[in-house]
């Protein structure tokens, strides 16, 4: 039986506390980078059909933790910042204002 190290536990908790990435964020991030879905697949090491499926999602992504983190990692490594409500960007960018409806 394997044991969970403190480092793995803190990474897991960090992931669980993070807001779930959305398909809209993936599309916006690709657009800011000038990337196609094929580019994101190559940069993230995730298959093109999987990137296409996640890219076309409306709302929060569902899928394997490793897949979503590989996509997030590829985007962040190339300058994308994922913001939570109240965060300020460190550079140029766009954000969708939450409306009260």
Describe the protein.
The structure is a single chain. By secondary structure, the chain is mainly α. The chain has a domain at 25-77: 434 Repressor (Amino-terminal Domain) (Orthogonal Bundle), CATH 1.10.260. Helices cover 51% and strands 0% of the residues. It contains 5 helices and no strands. The protein has helices at 6-17, 23-33, 37-44, 48-55, 65-77. The N and C termini lie far apart (49 Å). GO terms for molecular function: DNA binding.
User: What overall form do the CA principal axes indicate?
Assistant: globular
The average pLDDT value, as a whole number, equals 81
> Would you identify the regions where 5 or more consecutive residues have pLDDT less than 50?
1-6, 9-13
Oligomer: single chain
Proper CATH architecture of the domain at 25-77: Orthogonal Bundle
Distance between the termini: 49 Å
Radius of gyration: 15 Å
Kindly provide the name of the CATH class of the domain at 25-77: Mainly Alpha
InterPro entries: Cro/C1-type_HTH (IPR001387), Lambda_DNA-bd_dom_sf (IPR010982)
GO molecular function: DNA binding
Domain HTH cro/C1-type: 26-54
Protein name: Helix-turn-helix transcriptional regulator
């Amino acid at each position: 039986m394997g044991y969970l190290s403190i480092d793995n536990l803190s990474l897991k908790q960090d992931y669980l506390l993070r807001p779930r990435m959305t398909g809209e964020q993936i599309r916006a991030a690709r657009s800011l980078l000038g990337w196609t879905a094929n580019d994101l697949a190559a940069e993230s090491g995730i298959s093109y059909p999987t990137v296409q499926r996640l890219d076309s999602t409306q709302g929060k992504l569902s899928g394997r933790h490793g897949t979503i983190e590989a996509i997030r990692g590829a985007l962040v490594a190339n300058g994308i910042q994922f913001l939570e409500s109240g965060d300020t960007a460190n550079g140029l960018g766009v954000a969708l204002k939450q409306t009260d409806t």
